[in-house]
Amino acid sequence: PTEGSPLTPVATVSRYACQRRTTLENHNKKFTDAFEVLAESYEFNNMERPCLAFRRATSVLKSLPCAVRCLGATQDLPCLGQHTKKVIEEVLQCGRSFEVEELLSDERYQTFKLFTSVFGVGPKTAEKWFCRGLRSFSDILTDHSIHLNRMQQSGFLHHGDISRAVSAAEARSLRSVIDGAVHCVTPAATVALTGGFHRGKEFGHDVDFIVTTPELGEEESLLPNVIDELKKQGILLYCNYQASTFDMRKLPNHHFEAMDNFAKCFLILRLESSQVEGGLHCAEGDIRGWRAVRVDLVSPPVDRYAFALLGWTGSRQFERDLRRFAQVERGMILDNHALYDKKKKEFLAASTEKDIFAHLGLEYMEPWQRNA
Ligand code: DGT
Ligand code: MG
């Protein structure tokens, strides 16, 4: 039998992304690209369940070691419902899905896609603008009854640059920029690259870092000082700093969509072309000599470092399933701050990511295997 035929015995695929090693090599891109459009469209319509169903299905197909070549090959796979199978069948037969094609040319989908590409604009704002009959950036920017917050103003100002992907070379260069600024203000502090680049991605929409201090409590002044330093260097184009609201007595929250309570800042930085090996990944920026890049810094207390690292490394689907696994299979609550055992009524401490996998009774997975 050929690869992917229903006669080939396949090892059972777990319902949880945290039990599937998923690298960046996706053999089922033609299906997962279609699913992504559907998931996004449901997200734009505030329909969480079907949105998550398509995200889960995407993640299952991404984990497979080979391409799905017939519908029969999907029969033992978890998380694939009728709707997803119908799309797979269409793609197998016609090379495309008509439902997806229709969405891609749908005015509502296109407008939401455009509006949510702006930093600071989510589906709710996009909906508000769409309902007012706005369809383009110029519609928004010339409508004086629309109030843009500071984040959205910067989002529009730098849209050309920050809507372009950040390359791994640019992420490396930003790492030395952040390293420099952090060590200038706190020599003992540590900087770790996290998010998609930590999982080995070649491109990302931003660059994420975790910074902390070896001395508990010293992290409190870290980000404000780093921000001052970046300002002094003249490379801070936008900054939204959120002080910590972390309360260690509080139980963790298994809802992934809630952001964590660590001190963090969402930045737009100016990256010089001369600092990037091979130049910028942004043609306009290369001519100009610099580009704007989105950077997130999060600064947990050192005793929560492992939880923060695990939570910020992603992928989002990996994180959702890690929390769901903890809750459903282990009776534990996991978030970016802590792990709590509900039966024993106790917090489980961890100083490395491996400790957390071990508490959960999961085999350890390297960041590059978490591309669910
Ligand atoms: P990208 O798009 O190339 O930047 O891809 P990622 O994986 O770096 O995604 P990003 O930067 O949006 O988020 C990095 C990680 O941060 C993500 O994998 C999990 C965490 N994170 C981001 N947003 C949220 C959120 O709303 N809630 C929670 N709990 N974690 C989040
Ligand atoms: Mg990222």
From TrEMBL:
- A Gene Ontology term for the protein's cellular component: nucleus
Broad EC category: transferase
For this UniProt record, give its keywords in alphabetical order, as a comma-separated list.
Magnesium, Metal-binding, Nucleotidyltransferase, Nucleus, Terminal addition, Transferase
Its main localization is nucleus
Report which superkingdom the organism of origin falls in.
Answer: Eukaryota
Cofactor list: Mg(2+)
Annotated residues that bind Mg(2+) are located at: D206, D208, D296
The enzyme's E.C. designation: 2.7.7.7
The keyword Nucleus is annotated on this UniProt entry: yes
Q: Say yes or no: keyword Coiled coil present.
A: no
One Gene Ontology BP term is: DNA modification
What reaction does this enzyme carry out catalytically? DNA(n) + a 2'-deoxyribonucleoside 5'-triphosphate = DNA(n+1) + diphosphate
Q: Where in the cell is it found?
A: Nucleus
The molecular function terms in GO held by this entry are: DNA binding; DNA nucleotidylexotransferase activity; DNA-directed DNA polymerase activity; metal ion binding
Q: So what does this one do? A: Gap-filling polymerase involved in repair of DNA double-strand breaks by non-homologous end joining (NHEJ).
What family does the Swiss-Prot or TrEMBL record give for this protein? Belongs to the DNA polymerase type-X family.
Protein's name according to its UniProt entry: DNA-directed DNA/RNA polymerase mu
Which species is listed as the source?
A: Gymnodraco acuticeps (Antarctic dragonfish)
